Structures are given as C-alpha cells and as structure tokens.
Amino acid sequence: MSFFFEVLLGGLLAGVMYSLVAIGFVLIYKASGVFNFAQGSMVLFAALTFVSLLERGISFWLAFVLTLLAMVALAWTIERWVLRKLVNRPPITLFMATLGLSYIIEGLAQSLWGAQVHGLDLGINDEPFEFQGMLLSQFDIFAACVAGVLVLVLSVFFNKTRTGIALRAVADDQLAALAVGIKLEKLWLIVWTVAGFVGLVAGLLWGARLGVQFSLSLVVLKALPVLIIGGFTSISGSIVGGLIIGASEKLAEVFLGAYIGGGIENWFPYMLAMLFLLVRPTGIFGERQIERV
Amino acid sequence: EGEQYFPLQSYRIGPYAAGGSGFFGGFIDYLQYVNLKDGGVNGVKLTWSECETEYVVEKGVECYERLKQGLNGAPAAATNPLSVGIAYATLDRSTADKLPLITINHGRTDSTDGSVFPYVFPLQLNPYSEVSAIINYIGTQSGGLEKLKGKKIVTLYHGSPYGKETNPILELLAKKYGFKLTLLEVPHPGNEQQSQWLNIRRLKPDWVILRGWGVMNPVALKTAQKTGFPADHIIGNIWSNSEDDAAPAGNAAKGFIAITTHPSGTDFQVLQDIKKYVVDAQKGNLEDPKRFGTVYYNLGVVNGILNVEAVRVAQNKYGKRPLTGEEVRWGFENIKLDDKRLAELGALGLVQPLTLSCADHEGGGAVRFQQWDGSQWHVISDWVQADRELLRPIIEKSSHQYAKEKGITPRDCAKES
Amino acid sequence: MTARNPLLTLEHISLSFKGVKAITDMSFSVAEGEICALIGPNGAGKSSLLNVINGVYQPDDGIITYDGEIRTAMRPHHAAERGIARTFQNIALFKGMSVLDNVLTGRNLKVQSSWLEQAFNVGRAPKEALVQRQKAEEIIEFLRIQPWRGSLVGGLPYGLQKRVELARALAAEPKLLLLDEPMAGMNRDEKAEMSRFIVDTQREFGTTIVLIEHDIGVVMALSQHLVVLDYGKKIGDGPPEAVRNNPEVIAAYLGTRH
Amino acid sequence: MPVGALLHIQNIEVIYEKVILAVQDISLSVAPQSIVALLGANGAGKSTTLKAISGLASAQRGEIVDGRIEYQGNDITTTPPATLVERGLVQVLEGRHCFAHLSVEENLLTGGFVHNPSRHKLNQLLESIYHYFPRLKLLRKNLAGYASGGEQQMVAIGRALMSEPTLVLLDEPSMGLAPQIVEEIFTIIKNLRDEQGMSFLVAEQNAGAALRYADYAYILENGRISSEGDAEHINQSEVLLASYLAG
Amino acid sequence: MLYRESGQFSTSYPADRRIFRLYQERWAFYLLLAAAFLLIPWLGNDYWFSAILIPFLVLSLAALGLNLLTGYAGQLSLGSAAFMAVGAFAAYNSHLRIEGLPFLLSLLLGGVVAGLTGVVFGLPSLRIKGFYILVSTLAAQFFVLWVFTTFAWFSNDSSSGVITAPPLVILGHDFSSPQGRYLFTLTVVVALGFLAKSIVGSELGRNWMAVRDMDKAAEVIGIALPKAKLLAFAISSFYLGIAGSLWAFCYLGTVEPHGFDLSRSFQILFIIIIGGMGSILGNFLGAAFIVLLPILLSHIASGLLADTIDAGQLENCQKIIFGGLIIFFLIKEPDGLAKIYQTCKQRLQVWPLRF
Ligand SMILES: Nc1ncnc2c1ncn2[C@@H]1O[C@H](COP(=O)(O)OP(=O)(O)OP(=O)(O)O)[C@@H](O)[C@H]1O
Ligand SMILES: Nc1ncnc2c1ncn2[C@@H]1O[C@H](COP(=O)(O)OP(=O)(O)OP(=O)(O)O)[C@@H](O)[C@H]1O
Ligand SMILES: [Mg+2]
Ligand SMILES: [Mg+2]
Question: Where does the record place the ABC transporter domain (chain D) (predicted)?
C-alpha cells in the first residue's frame, strides 16, 4: 500500500512538471486564441540560451536576466513578423504558423548554441529524503511551489486586470478587438514575453532534470494532454490536469503495464484525456464553445 | 594515384546530434590525418563529403543514393550511416550496389553471418555479444558465473526495436545462469522515468542494465538517484556510454559503469598524432575542441582505422589504386588486427584485436568496462569476451530465415579465400 | 384564422437559460400553407422559438405537434428529414464553398445513390447528379443569383448571402420553411424582391412559412397570420390587421417607448 | 473640398486579396458635429469604405492602393486602428462582432479602456450606456455570445460609445433591431451630436430612417459615389428612386 | 416559374463537372501523364527514382489522405503517420499470413484496416471539436506505434522489430527494380488521385466541406454529421494506409515503427499547408516542394558553399528556411501553392488587364 502512495506522490510531482509547460500554452491560448505549438521550442531556446551563457562564465542572475531579454526579443520578433501579419485569421492558420515558428526557433537555438548536451545545476538538491516512508526530493517540492505561484499570479492577472479582459477579448474576435482600440501589438508582446518567461522557468527546471538538449522541445507532448484535461483556457486547469495526468500515468505504468506491456506512458495520457473529453468536451475548466444560431 | 571516396551520411543536428557530430568528427579527422601524414593510403588520397541525415531514415536513403556513385570519379569505399534505421533501409540497396555497409557496434545482429550478408559489417560488437559480455562481467563481479543464480537483474530498455532486440538473449542467459530478470520499458524519448525507477526501488535488484538512447540516459541516472538506487550498480550499454550520456546527470552519474569497445581519452599514439597533424593545425572537424578524445570521437577514429585498414588490405590484393566497393568488401573480410598491427597503427588499447572473415563480420565481440567519476571515464576492466559460441547458432538461425524469405543462397565460406 | 389544418402546433412551450426565461408557456399553431410572421422586441424569444421548432433547442416543457407527429422535442436532423428547413439570423452559410455547392448541400436529403456509387460514378449516381444539378440551377435562377453561381459565398455582400441562404433552404423542397430576419440589412427594393420570392414560394409549392421580421410594413404585406412576442410571452395572435390594432401590441412593440 | 472637415477622403481605391477591387475613386467628407449617411445597395462598398477609414480593411486582407484619408487634418491612410480610436475615431462593425466569451458588461468595458480612465469614470460611462439601453443592464452578467441578435447590436454600439469618440463610423446600426429601437438609436445619435458634438458616418440600407436624421448623404453604386447632397434634398429628389434605394 | 423545364443546362452539366474544363489544360494534363508513364522510366536514374520520385509520389498520396480529412472535412489531425503505419503493418501481415494473397489485395487490405482504425479514432470527433480533436489523433499516433513495438507478432517476431519488405511481384511481374517501383507507385497514386477528385466533387465532398465550414448549420440542413465525419476518417485513413504500404514496400523496403512517428505526421501536415488545404493539386505541389527543397538546398550548399559552412549549420539553416516558408505562405497565400497556380492562371486569362 505504501508503494501505491509512493507512486501516486511521484506521479503528482511529475505532473506538476508537466503543468509548468502547460501554463505557457494556456497563457497564449487564453490571451490570443493561438494554439502555440512552439511553446516546447521556446522552452528549449530559453534553457539553451541560459545554460550557454552560464557556461561562458556569466553569473546565474545575469544569465537569467540576459535570457529574459532574449525572450523579449523573441517575442518582439514573433509579434512583428508573424502575428501582426496574421491578424484576424482563423485559429487553424495561427496554429500552423506556430508549427513553422517551432522549426525556426529550434534551428536558431541549435545554430546559435550548438547541439551538444549541457548539464545544468540549479543548486537545488535532487537527492531523496524519507518522509513517512516515502521518498521526496527538495527539487520536486521546489518545482511544485514555483508552479503554484505562477498559477496564482497569472489567474489574478487574467481575471482581475483590464489587460486580462482585453486579452480575452482578443482571443474571441481580433477584428472587433482592433475596432475598439485594443493594441494587439502591445498585448501580444506582453503575452509572448510572459510565455517566454514561463518557458524559461520550465526550461530551467526541466533542463536540470534532463540536461539541456534538443529533447526538451519534446516535453510539449507531455503538456498537451494536461492542457486538454484542464481545458485550454484555464490556468488553474493546467495544474489540475497536470496532477491528474501525472498520477494516473504513473499508476497505470506500474500497475497496468505489468499486464499489457510496459512503456504505455506515451499514449496513456492521451487516451485518458480522450475519455475525459467524451464527458466534458472542453476539459474540466475549459470555456464552453458558444454556438448561437 | 587517384582518390578513394567515403560518402558520409552524417547527422549533426536534431535529438541525436551529439553522437553524430562526435563520431563523424573523429572519422573525418582520422581520414585527414591519413592524408596529411602519409599522403593517403599508398598514395591514394582519401576524400569524403557529408550529407546530413538528421538520423531520419529517408534522408539517409536520399543521401545514400546521392553519394553512392562516388565523387568526381573517386569510387565510394563503404557507407557508415551510424543509424540502425538507415542501415536497415539501405541494406538491400548496398548489396545490390555492391557497396559495404558498416554498422560498427550496432545494426542487425544476424548480419554477423557474412555468408548471408556479404556486404554488411557489424564490426567489433553486435548487440547480442554486448549483453553477453555484460552478464559475464556481472558474473565476475559476483565471483563467478555460477554465483549469478538467484541474483536479480533489471534491464531498463528504450521502447524501440533497438531497445528490445536483446531481450530474448537476456532471457536465454537468465535461464542458463538462473538469475531473475525483469524487463522494464521506457517509452521514447524517455524524459520521464519516475514509475520505472519506483518499480526498480520495489524490486531491489542487484544490477540494472541500461539500454538507453539519447536523453533517456541522463534521466535514468537522475531518477535513479532520486529513488535511491546506487549509480555504481547501473551498467550502461554501448549507446549509454558516452560523456553526453553521463555528464548532464551531474552528480547523479558518479560511479555509473558502462561498457565500451574503445576507451575514451587521448593517451593513444594515434590520437596524439591526430592532434599534432590535424587539430593543432586548425583543421580539426570538431566544433568544440573539448570533445577531442571523448567516447563518440574515439569511436569515429576507430571506425576510420577499420575503414582505412580495409582499403589497405584490399590494395594489397588488387593494387595501389582507388578501389570499388566490391574490392573494399574483400578488404574488410580479410582484416586481421593483432597487437603488433595495432601497435603500428598507434591504436593499441584503443581497438580490440580483431579478425574478420567471410563467416564472421563482427570479429571481436569483446568490451571493456569504464566508470564515470563525475567528469570523465576511467577504464576499470580488461577486455571481457562475449560467449560467442552460445550466440552463433541463434544468429545463424535468424540469418538463414532471412535468406529463405529473400530467396538468397548463402555463400559457402569454406570456398572463400 | 384559415380553415386549413394546422401543420405545426406548439402547446405550452417554455424555455429558459440560466436565469433568462426566453419563452414562457407559449402556444400557437400555424396552418398548412400560410405565412405566419413572428414579431416582437429584441430579445423577445423569436429566434429561440424557431430553434425550438427545428430542434436546435430542447424546450423545458410543452408539446410540439408537426404534421401529425407529436413530440416534446425535435432533433435538427430529424426536423430536416421531416421537411423543415430554415435560414439563420446570423448568416450560416458554408463560407469556403461556391454558391452552387451551397445550394446543392441543401439537397443532401434528396440524394438516393450511395457515396460509393458517386465516387466511382456508377449505378444511380450519374443520372442523379444531373437531376440534382438541374434542381439547384432552377432555384438559383428563381432567386436570380446566377451571376455568382461559381463564387465563394464568403466574399459576397451581406444581402446576397441572405439570398443564397434562402436558396439553400428552398433546395430541400421543405414543407415548413423558417426564416429568421431574411430581409435584415436590405433596402426597400431588395426587401420587395425578397418578399416576392417568399410569396412565390408559398403560392407555387404551398410551403408553410414562419418568418421573423422587424419591418412592420413587410410583415403586414406578407403574412396571413401574426404572432407577437414580448419577453417570452405571447401578447398577440391572429390576422395581421386585428393584431396591429391590439393596444398591448402597440405598447410593447410598435408604438412608444416601453 | 470643404474647409475644416473632420474627416476627408480623397479618391481612395480599395482592393481585397490583391485581386478584388471593391471601391474606387471614393471621395467624401464629414463636417464636425454632423451626421452623414452613406447609402447604397448590397455590395456597393459601404462597409469597405468604412473599414478603409478605420484601418480595419487591412485586417481582412484589404489594401488602400490609391488616394488618401485625412482626419482632423492629419493623414491617417495607414494609421493603425488602435491609434485612431485613441484619437476618437471608432467604428461599429457590421454584423455585431461581440466578444462571445465575455459578459455583456465586460464587452462594454473593453470599449472604455483606450483612454485608461479611472474606475469611477468607467462606471459613469457604463451607467450612461445602460441608460441608453436598459435591456443591457438586465443582461450585464450574461455572456454576450448568448444574447439575441438585437441585444448584441446594442452591445456593439454601446461598446463603441464607451470610448467617448469624436467620430463614429456606424455600419448598418439598424440591422436586426426592432422598429422602436431603431428610432431610439437614431435619436441617441442625434442627441450625441447636439449635446456632445460627436459626428457620425452611418452606412445604412434603411435609407428612410437614415435620411430623416442625417445632415448630408452620399450614395454609392458599384464601388463609386454616384451622387451626394443634403439629406433632405436627396430624400426628395429622384436620385434615390433611380438608384433603387428608397427605404 | 420555379421547376420549369430548362433543358439548356442539362447537356453542359457533365462537361461542367469535368476535372479540367479548358481543353488546353486537359491536354497539358494528358501530356504530363504520358510523360510520367512513358518518358520518365526511360530518362530517370536510380537516384531520381529512389530518392526523389517515389517519396514524392508516396508523400503526395499521404497528403491527399490528410487533406481529405483536414482540408475538406475540417478535422485537424496529427496522427497521419499512425494510419500509415497501420496500413504498412496490415499489408505486411496479410501478405505474410494469408497464403497466396496477391500483393495488390494485401495492399488494399492494408488500406481497409487503416480505414477501420481511422473510424475508431474518429469516433470522439462526434463529440469534441476544434483543437480538442487533436487529442484523439495524437492518441492514435502514440498508441499505434506502441502496439507495433510492443507486440512482436506484428513484425513476425523478428528480433529487431524491423520488418523487411517482400519482393514486389504483381501479377507475375517483378517490380523490384527502381523503375518498376516507380511505375507501380505512380499507377496507384494516379488511380487514387482520380478517385479522390471524384469524391470531393460528389455529395460526400460537399457534406465534408459543410461540416468544415459550419457544422451546426450542416446538421440543421439534414447532413448526417456522424456519417460524414466517420467517412472522412475512414477514407482519409484508407489513403494514408495505402501510402504507408507504398512507403514500406516501394520506397524503403523496410518498416520500422519509428519511421512513422510524430514528425512524419507533421511533415504531411506541412505538405498540405504549403500545397493548399482543400485542393487535390495542392498535395502534389506541396509534396514536390517538401521533397525537393531540402535536396536543392543541400545540393546548393555542397556545391557552392562546401567549405564555408558545415553540414550541421546548413541543416539548421534549412530548418529555419523551412519554418520561415511555412509562415510566409500562411501570411501571403493561406491557400497555398495551389492558389498561386490558380491566380497565375487567372492573370494569364485576363492579361494584360489587371483585374
Ligand atoms: N443559448 C442561450 N443561452 C443563454 N441565453 C440565451 C440563449 N439563447 C437565447 N438566449 C436569451 O434568450 C432571449 C431571447 O433570445 P432570442 O434570440 O430568441 O431573441 P429574439 O427575439 O430573436 O431577438 P432579436 O430580435 O434581437 O433577434 C435573449 O435575452 C437571449 O439573451
Ligand atoms: N473580406 C473581403 N474579401 C474579399 N472581398 C470582399 C471582402 N469584403 C467585401 N468584399 C467585396 O467588396 C465589395 C464591396 O463589399 P462591401 O461589404 O463593402 O459592401 P456593402 O455596401 O457594405 O454591402 P452590404 O450592404 O451587403 O453590407 C463586394 O463586392 C464584396 O464582395
Ligand atoms: Mg433573433
Ligand atoms: Mg456592408
């Protein structure tokens, strides 16, 4: 039984790591209706930039600030050369544009910083300690706190501030948003920068886990089902989704994998998400689609 | 006179770039070294050109088709894709085109049987030999193979054909020696392994064999640490044995053991020479000079040594001129590296003694074990040989099945010289 | 009212959305072959009522009798099969398709041949394709939209889109046609033309029509039966002239500020 | 060219997607504190003209390829819409375009953000809109996407007024509104002109109503201006009948 | 006045429905076909057949499959490669396990099995919409690959899990040579291309587009949404399945599940974006573009810039160029190469006038 709880806890903590990536997604989707597939590449780009700066002897915080500036520059470029030119296009077009973006960002990251694998040490201990017979690590607890804080801050931002309302308006109807004088350019810049920041945080935590390397961009595949269960438009949904996915996939791998063959973690979250959708077609906290005729 | 051409299906970007850029860096540097030091092989200059595959099969095929004709009249000697997928996809083609396909340390196990696969060379070590050697090592560590009885061994493998290939052999060995084997799969790419390691924690095995690939390796080490499994009882296989696999795991990798067919480091004559002739002359292929002497780089050098040796052997028979693929193939089948020859090549201790033949396209089948000290590898064992007698019938069974499917009549190796 | 049989009867229909009571205890019937107009202030529940009739909304309460069949709710697909076609207040055309294709989709329920026959152009398919096309062309001609037959509807001006939408509905050869503000955004002449189409439809095929319209002039000229809604309740029902003079209607809709 | 015009358009030509010519050679002006009607049949180019002025045409892959637009004496041919709204030029789009997932009140609020007013001021603005459209106050917490067609039209107009504009471009404001609301809206427009000095450029199919309140009118035919004049004059002349426009 | 006899159109409808209405176009197309079947087999070399033409044809077919689903029926999918894998493995296994089954039939069977799988993963589309449907196709993507790697039965218990394609013998003729494989692929692709054209022009195609453009309205006018959507998944997956088999048997000669991973799905999606969604021609243009561009770039680089830029950087540049092109297309020509082709044609027709 204690093994069960250990797996459960491990899963919940792993789920939080997924949430970190998912938050970046939700942010952009909620704010502009763009399903940003490039979030994974942004995570890679941020982590790679950071670690490369670090390796060039720059101090931690300076590297952090410089990376953040790089993310602002990236956001600016994306706004200027992609989003601005795709105003008022259907969501699917924007989605595909982000696919293109992910190619560009990955290519850029690799040509700037090379393709080697880099180790990253954040100075947070990842060694286990026993807690009531279960293993816990400081690192996981730290990651969980970071995710919690992010969710809190961002939720307040979206629901309580004027910018938040404007952002949701943009997501609904860009033409009308333009017509009422919302500055799309400015908002996009803000959102993509914040998403870049979230990407950086996720990139650092994941990078400390995996090493900073190309595979970081693949963590979006873990974030997708999280997003879908939580709902594309809900920040707190991404945490709940992360916990559900994390816990259930670990339990499934350990207890179900023994019967149907291991390695089911890749598809299990998607199947689970699919079942969830059959009950709630827009995820747990997702906004309902409005269809009036 | 003339030039001998090496078509390089390299990969320097994408998820596996670290391996590709190291390997092809070493390979190219060795070829350069031969040109710079000796002016080629018996006066035949070596040339090459690269085509990026990104480790993607169809790009590899395109590269193969593009490069196989040779370059400016220089005929191609052999292809070295360093990718199981590309090797599979070009296997039929290279046989038809009579161009040797070198899959050093990897590839199709049954292609060891040269009578069915005349053009395919899994040099040094095929996957079966690899696990057999690992079990032999664990046996010696436990004080003899008979002590394996009752031991618990977990194999953590990458969820791909590559990862699974050795599972039947492990099961066979488990039966033979009486150890308890548990196979755990890590789905590709392997960036989350919490559940597998919690399982390991519950099973409390004596050893964990890591058949990883790419990001799966450092994550395995990190997660092992998190779940309290000691790194010095994890044994990495041939694709879990590079600096790029251990270093990103930081502290967690300290003590990690892995096999190797060729030690890393630079205290080998040939590497010193490469440094002198190539690297110090600013002609090195590596983007990051710090990677000189790393596992992948050295594997590239070893691969270069073997390819060039094949050309040299074949020249002895066919004359000192650029050779066709068919002729180079004969060279490969007649490579004979004993300690004396290895010393001449400056590769003593770097390359294992190797004798290839028509029937045996693997040749060596031995590995050494190395341990990570947090920043580099240290060799901790002598050559450990695989149980090749045990494996041969299995290999032949498989190759003959292939021959039947494809309607190939195996060569009679007794008649070959 | 007319002596003809009722084609559609609503009895005690109620519909509400979280907090908003869109329709309260609504009953009326529409006789076969008549043009019945629904009028009422904005948000009175007119569109909702059409949605209930063809099954887009399920009423909370009440009974719908259509063509002898008694139901508590319809499904849109079932309604279409039973001969109910409609147009929408917010144009709901297939924007990426040509006018002709839009009209042809309206005929989807009339197609007999299977998709395989059509794909390989064998069996009933070739002949049927001709028939369908001909019917579609007739409707296109009837509504005078031939010049735009091949254009994508997305780029057409609003008024034309409304006409295409009517064409699509007519293509189904419906028994009951529901029109939600078919003349919004048109000038008088265009309205007159549209009215003519509507009257012709009714005359030639005996189609029963329920229509929502805010232009009281058009309503008076067109309809034989008028139902007035005011915030979910029916406040008038009968021949146009009688209803028009009903003081309650005047107060709620036509006359001064409420 | 009228001196001191608030808005002045010279010979503009608009092309969609680089191939569809929507309007050409359009010139018109709007005097301060006036209501100008823009009349024309379906597809005549009314909406296109308005969108060209407000800078929204480019968001629909349209382009002003010729001519220039002046507002308050400045060239605004390529000025982005947000800047125009800041300067008091706002458009109410044809077809309502409410933010479906925002409540009615949030919809109105989005219109008020441009000048970054205090919360108090914002509430005042809201109240004034609720005063014009009492129905909206009832629905303030409901999602705009579920509101009826006419209600959404009110939201769209109210939202534009929230920015306290100088010049409002109204695209078919009467569409889908019950007759007495139409009269109400035009009365509101008239009051705003008289009391707050706003100007309106109104594209309408409902020529009758529009001309009753407008000062001046232009008639568009096939992407060109076919005639113009004082509203009263246009209303009585044969022009209207001749161009099939009577409302 | 409605429904009166108006025979004047009836004679011209079939002509109107033809694929190419202008005779110049029709002839150009016939010429192209003739060249593809008669000329190219003589002119081409190994490299052209094996590295360019065959993958081009197979990818066109796969894109065609996805285009039916995404471009016509409006259902976004990231699982195309999974259905290709199902096709390939099903064809391999039916060839292997059903004694004496002609190759063509096992190919067809592969397609049918893929189609059925498509239906299964299409079922959620009856309830979920928009981006959420991605989850179902991604589930297919990961689940299918897992099944093929986990259960060795599918690869005939081969130790490496990689299956080797049997020789390509059709009706007693050996098509194993590069020419043969090219001709066979070409025949299949052309036949299925015509079939697709006919489907999208039929009622089913219209229903798909209706579902894509506004499914609520489609439902109201009586289109059976479940049927239309599931057929879209089925037919699309059928095409993908056939393409998968061709990929395995005619192109690579081997099948490894990971050859059908997510990046393949993306590649196919890119083809339809660049080529043009909702266009048949676009698939071919897009596939040509995707197959040729990287080759062209690397040829240029190895020719001109051989020493100045290393292969890795070059590939990075290529990635950037690729991403850039996708965005460029979305900005400038959202309807892809097919639309550009049409615009050029229209320009030519009205030339020298501007509009
Ligand atoms: N799906 C829904 N969810 C919530 N409220 C709804 C929904 N549909 C309609 N309503 C509400 O029901 C009331 C009636 O709406 P309906 O669309 O039927 O009005 P209408 O009479 O057609 O008005 P208009 O003339 O403006 O189109 C409105 O207040 C609207 O907000
Ligand atoms: N986004 C667009 N893309 C392509 N063509 C367009 C677009 N919008 C309008 N058009 C074309 O431009 C022309 C003018 O259209 P516009 O919408 O300006 O007319 P309108 O006078 O407002 O008509 P309505 O009274 O129907 O609203 C029409 O022929 C229309 O087809
Ligand atoms: Mg309504
Ligand atoms: Mg308009």
Answer: 7-247
Domain membership of residue C70 (yes or no) is yes
Do C185 and D142 lie within an 8 Å CB cutoff? no
Last residue of a domain, one of C150, C173, C196: C173
Write out residues in chain C with pLDDT < 50, as ranges: 1-2, 256-258
Residue of C50, C190, C214 to mutate for D, most D C-beta atoms under 10 A: C214
pTM to 2 decimal places? 0.90
User: Quick one: average pLDDT of B258-262?
Assistant: 94
Q: Which amino acid is at E237?
A: S
Contact B387, E148 (CB under 8 A): no
Q: Looking at C173, C190, C217, which one is the last position of a domain?
A: C173
- Whose alpha carbon is nearest atom 8 of ligand 2? C155
Quote ipTM for the complex: 0.89
* Residue of C15, C16, C17 with the most ligand 1 atoms within 8 Å of its CB, for mutation: C17
In this model, does residue B152 exceed pLDDT 70? yes
Chain D (213-242) residues lying within 8 Å, Cβ to Cβ, of chain C: none
Model pLDDT for residues E267-298, shown as the tens digit of each residue: 999 999 889 999 999 999 999 998 988 888 77
Asked whether residue C77 falls in the same domain as residue C115, the answer is no
Buried/exposed code over B241-269 (b: 16+ C-beta within 10 A; e: otherwise): bbbbbbbbbbbbbbbbbbbbbbbbbeebb
Q: Which residue of E has its CA nearest to B86?
A: E252
Taking CA atoms, what residue in D is nearest to C47?
D148
Q: What is the pLDDT of residue C257?
A: 37
**Helix residue ranges per DSSP H, chain A:** 2-32, 39-55, 60-78, 91-113, 138-160, 162-172, 174-179, 184-210, 220-230, 235-251, 257-260, 268-279
Give the pLDDT score at E20.
64
Q: What is the pLDDT of residues B48-82, one digit of tens each?
A: 988 888 888 888 998 999 899 898 889 999 999 99
Q: Is A247 contained in some domain?
A: no
Question: How many distinct structural domains can be found in chain C?
Answer: 2
In a domain, C224, yes or no: yes
Domains, chain E, ordered by start: 44-350 (1.10.3470)
Residue C103 included in any domain: yes
Same domain, residue pair C152 and C189: no
Residues C249 and C147 reside in one and the same domain: no
Amino acid at the residue E199: I
A121 in any annotated domain: no
The conformation of residue E152, written as its DSSP 8-state character, comes to G
Q: Which two tokens stand for residue E351?
A: 């030339």
Q: Are residues C58 and C184 in the same domain?
A: yes
**Alpha carbon of D146 to ligand 1 centroid (Å):** 7
Question: Does D59 sit within 8 Å of A87, measured CB to CB?
Answer: yes
Residues C179 and C161 in one domain: no
E241 or D205: whose pLDDT is higher? Answer: E241
> How far is C137 from D45, CA to CA, in rounded Å?
28
Q: Which domain holds residue A33?
A: 2-114+135-218
Q: In 3D, which of E240, E226, E242, E234 has the Cα closest to residue E115?
A: E234
Position A210 confidence tier, pLDDT thresholds 50, 70, 90: confident
Answer whether residue C147 is part of any domain.
Answer: yes
Listed by number, the residues of chain D in 10-39 with a beta carbon closer than 8 Å to a beta carbon of chain E are: 19-21
- Contacts with A183 from chain D: Cβ below 8 Å: 82
Question: Could you give the CA distance from residue E297 to residue C44 in angstroms, rounded to a whole number?
Answer: 64
Domain extents in chain D = 7-246
CA of C232 to the centre of ligand 1 (A): 10
Under 8 Å between Cβ of A150 and A20: yes
The domain defined by D7-246 folds into Rossmann fold (3.40.50)
Count of structural domains within chain A: 1
A272 belongs to a structural domain: no
Assess whether the previous peptide bond of E352 is cis (omega < 30° from 0): yes
Question: Do you find a cis peptide bond into B189, omega within 30 degrees of 0?
Answer: yes
Ligand 2 contact via D77 beta carbon (within 6 Å): no
